Amino acid sequence: MTEVAVIGCGVVGAMIAYELSSIPDLRITVFDRQQPAQASTGAALGVLMGAISQKVKGRSWKLRQASMQRYETLVEELGHPVPYNRQGIVMLCFDEAELPRWQSLINIRQTQGWPIEQWDASKLRSRCPHIQHPGLAAAIYSPCDRQIDPTALTLALVEAAKQRGVRFEFDRPVLSIRSADHHAQQVVTASENLSVDWVVVAAGLGSTELTRSLDAPLDLRPVLGQAIKIQLPESIGDASFQPVITGDDVHLVPLGNHQYWIGATVELPDEAGIVAEASPDRLERVFEDAIAFCPALANAKILQTWSGLRPRPHNQPAPVIGLLSGYDNVLLATGHYRNGVLLAPATATAVCDAIASPTQGTA
Ligand SMILES: Cc1cc2nc3c(=O)[nH]c(=O)nc-3n(C[C@H](O)[C@H](O)[C@H](O)COP(=O)(O)OP(=O)(O)OC[C@H]3O[C@@H](n4cnc5c(N)ncnc54)[C@H](O)[C@@H]3O)c2cc1C
Predict the structure, then answer these.
(1) Which atom of ligand 1 has the smallest separation from the CA of 309?
(2) For residue range 70-85, what is the model confidence (pLDDT) as tens digits?
(3) pTM above 0.85, yes or no
(4) What's the total number of domains in the chain?
(5) Quick one: DSSP state of residue 10?
(6) The domain spanning residue 195 has which CATH number?
């Protein structure tokens, strides 16, 4: 048996554990210092911006495309209900000068088999009557993009992986990874030293500390995000067509029962990597931006506000997937910044490939 330890049980660690569990002869243990889906994953909105992103080639597009394809089969396969909005994403365009860039994306996506459409203001009014803004130049509709509940997804992955024999140890911080000659040997917790063949570091912002114990610290910086859950007195728009609406980087995410998530702020840390406290003013501004394109939100009751920290790699692109420099059995699967829910499936595939065929390297 090959012994694999996955450190971290956010959406990325849970996805990796689930996908690894279909490979024969692996014994898999997942450690988390908290319960699952508590850190960045617990704050996320689960908007899967694949086809509508401006990434059209290279690693970024490949990861997006592979993830979007995997989601379509995964959700059914899990056997636990996970809220999954298949009605697409509508991106509002306020600047006419942006339209040639969108047209070029539409042309590229057509050839890639991910059709997206440009709507003029009257088409937008007929499809999404709750969206009204005098400055709207057009909207881009991406029917193949999705939104998923990140916490429900993570918990469903944990349950499905448990059924396939994965061991989960929650409230069990990994204190360090012991190594010799640049080969990880043991994962150390307060109650056990697990001897390992592979370690997968999927610990979000905790990955920095863990890699420090291997003398190869990965520099990840926190980026604060705040969001709101609201309740409306009645339905808005067309009840049978409720896609995610995105305007000026603010998402309006339908949840059913006249409830929506709105968010999120993107609050960068200072030079030293210190992030500001979550302040109500920034969140208030996001809410006002949403009301500006969906006036009915002014009647909403705020049910909940929250914040979370996104793990952003410093001086390298997100995410970080592959062998830790100098080590032959420590895989990094971390630093997903704003797209960890979207990119979790492709990340898990890369980890599976690396463990199943170690000589082929990783993404
Ligand atoms: C407000 C907000 C909105 C977002 N919206 C979206 C969105 O719409 N779409 C999208 O794709 N992404 C979104 N994101 C980003 C997304 O949440 C992250 O990219 C993703 O959750 C990262 O997942 P993860 O599993 O790598 O990390 P995390 O969810 O942070 O999980 C890491 C886990 O590792 C554990 N851990 C750390 N150190 C240790 C240790 N030493 N021992 C044991 N366990 C440890 C932690 O307890 C934690 O459970 C959003 C983020 C925020 C904050």
Answers:
(1) 53
(2) 999 999 999 899 999 9
(3) yes
(4) 1
(5) S
(6) 3.50.50.60
